[in-house]
Amino acid sequence: MNDTPELLTADRHRLLREHVMSEIAGQTTKVTGSRHKLVWWVAPPLAVVAVAAVTLVGPGRNDGSAAPAVAPAAPTSAAPTVSEPTDAAGLLSRAAKAAASRPDPGAKNSQFTYQRMVQDGARESRHERTMWMAVDGRSKGLIADPTMSGPGDEKGRVTWPAALGAGRGAPTQAGFLAPTYEFVAALPTDPDLLLQQLLAADRSKQVVGMPITDELRHQLAFGDIQMIFMNVTAPPAVAGSLMETAARIPGTRVVADEVDAAGRHGVAVVGRNGNLRVSLIFDRTTGVFLGVRQVLLAELPTIGADGLPPTGDPSPGAGNGKGYDFATAVLKAGIVDHAGDEPEN
């Protein structure tokens, strides 16, 4: 029996692993007695800190003169004070609503999504990556990344298949295994409906040689959301839905503070992906996707009834002393007319 079931096609595995930004890039099952250890590529640490309260002080007179006498104003009904959320769930909810309310770019099928980011990991040096992916998945995209090999153009940009997952044995239509902006734009904006669609997705081509348990299905759904944010981006309304959906997947939790590869702090949805703990990080105010942080764990405690992801210690030497296995920070994202173009703003 083959103890290394293949979760994805070889080409999609290469894309996600070579980019170190996989959704479910590969899996190895090792059996020791009755204990199974799963290794997939993607996950991050939890760094929860209290959100500091801010006190605003109004200006006062400092010219030494006495303030003029003013008759007391008639009592008025004060406007209700809107308190800022400080709990993790409240922060994520506010961020998701802000993300959904951003202007829709109105992407056309002939255009490309653009994403420029910093990547930093244990297996590669810190560098920038820029990606152009066709909105409809019918035109080939470009990836500029000094760590990638293969034929490139005069600027060293590598031509990539029209859709993630395209290649030998890959699905012929866009979907969660080969997401495009066009496919993502059609996803439900209701988190409950989106969660149902993710959990009902056909996983038979992703998992071979092992049963698809509820726990595995939950991790695959979380990986799908990670894949979209890291590679395809999403229209505003769907982005907000994806954020709330990620937090509703069993086995995930929300933390109030996590840090991306650029040192920016945000609210995060944290989930499990094999032996990795993955954080999807969002700006607390705008809901913009900031990046991912993942940590390789030494052991995987069983998820309890509270549904929390593993909180085990990092593997000895994990991250080559960096304290994390992989982290990203999206510096710029948008829609452009041609692969290789830069957004105007």
In short:
The chain has 345 residues and is an alpha+beta fold.
Protein architecture, described:
The chain has six helices and eleven strands. The chain is of the alpha+beta class and about 350 residues long. Mean pLDDT is about 75; it is low at about 1-80, about 165-170, about 300-310 and about 315-320. A hairpin with a 2-residue loop joins strand 3 (about 110-120) and strand 4 (about 125-135). The strands form two sheets. A nine-stranded antiparallel sheet has the order 6-5-4-3-11-10-9-8-7. A two-stranded antiparallel sheet has the order 1-2.
Strand count, sense and barrel status of the largest sheet are:
9 strands, antiparallel
Global structural class: alpha+beta
Q: Classify the beta-strand content into a percent band.
A: 15-25%
Order of helices and strands: HEEHEEEEHHHHEEEEE
List the strand order in the largest sheet: 6-5-4-3-11-10-9-8-7
Mean pLDDT: 73
Over all CA atoms, what is the radius of gyration? 23 Å
Low-confidence stretches: 1-82, 166-171, 300-312, 314-318
Q: Level of helix content?
A: 10-25%
User: N-to-C terminal Cα separation, in Å?
Assistant: 54 Å
Shape: globular
The number of E-state strands comes to 11
Count helical runs: 6
Which descriptors apply to this entry?
single chain, globular, disordered N terminus, 6 helices, alpha+beta
List the helices and strands and how they pair.
Layout: H1 10-18, E1 28-32, E2 35-39, H2 88-100, E3 112-121, E4 124-134, E5 141-144, E6 158-160, H3 181-185, H4 191-200, H5 214-232, H6 236-248, E7 253-259, E8 265-273, E9 276-282, E10 289-296, E11 326-336
Antiparallel strand pairs: 1-2, 3-4, 3-11, 4-5, 5-6, 7-8, 8-9, 9-10, 10-11
Helix pairs in contact: 2-6, 4-6, 5-6
